[in-house]
Design brief:
alpha/beta; binds zinc ion; binds 5'-O-[(R)-(carboxyoxy)(hydroxy)phosphoryl]adenosine
Length: 371
Amino acid sequence: MNILSIETSCDETAVALIEVKNNKFKIIEDFVSSQIKVHAPFGGVVPNLAAREHLKNLPLLLQKTIKKHKLASKNIDLIAVTQGPGLIPALLIGTNSAKALAYAWKKPLIGVHHIAGHIYANFFQDSTFPLSADASNSSRSNLSIKFPALALIVSGGHTQLILMKKHLDFKIVGETLDDAAGEAFDKVARILDLGYPGGPAVAAEAAKFPNKSKFQNLNLKLPRPMINSGNLNFSFSGLKTAVLYTVKNNPKILKSKNLKAALCAEFQQAVIDVLISKTIKAAKKYSPKTILLGGGVSANQELRAQLGEAVEKNMPNIKYKIPATRYSLDNATMIAVAGYFQYKLAKNKKKFENNWKNLEAAAGLYLSSRA
Ligand code: KG4
Ligand code: ZN
């Protein structure tokens, strides 16, 4: 089965082609076109500019994929597209293009929830596609996934703990009450003049301050919001404000490389401490067999490593699965994989056949029931 997939929910235009044979995924194509340069002068993603870039780039990526792999109706079985949540102008470009292809090729069309995509970035192993160097940076990353699984999804728009008792069964057991973790990284980067996208910039600064023992004297300690709240929810907006006031009270920070790096390290650690604490708490409550990590913030090397260590220490019998960083960030392969499971497990596959008429782009799309 060959699946062509499209992702345009935010600032990456992505197209993938995957082949599924005997329950194994082979990534045949995996294009991601970044818009960083377009949005950087604005310090964040501008929805209408994102849409304009998708409109320019998506047809080119599709044309490249179609030409290179000689695609036609006869060698495509399914089209999958991110339906939401995301920026509506951006989503409209992807969904509308997917509809056009589904209509022209007379193929079933599946709308995929972006967060389901991030979760399913953990559900494929591919031995043929050249993965980035860190694909095997966790010796435990090749273990297969067993249910129940607990997913920590941390992206620019979401921070959620999701319990899955089986495929496509998503129950949100904890989530942020305000900002998402990635959003906090982006806002802190702005406060510290580190530019956009903020996550990698803050992480790179933090890495310049490895000497944690010297931290004590710098008076930069930040709160760990809601770490003892007794539930599985998060809050990152106050943490961002704490960074803002730390800088206001000590403007030297903006001029001192060492202080800035120290503050980034402390901020990153505060986010990681809360994420790990709640994930372990959720794991103790729900006893999953696997813990999955996903979403853009899961590209953060400290989070990947420290969560792995915490799982190993607290619950060594639970498998810990992370995507290669390439698949932590937005991509279309994860949309194809989630779409595959949606199609394969659907009782009524016919409903996807005329979906070019029905599929909507939805900014606020719910993943599941809440606990
Ligand atoms: O999943 P994603 O690519 O897009 C959304 O679905 O939102 O996540 C983007 C978010 C941004 O907030 C970005 O700053 C953050 O992920 N991010 C990181 C890192 N790389 C990307 N945050 C922390 N450390 C990183 N290395
Ligand atoms: Zn994402």
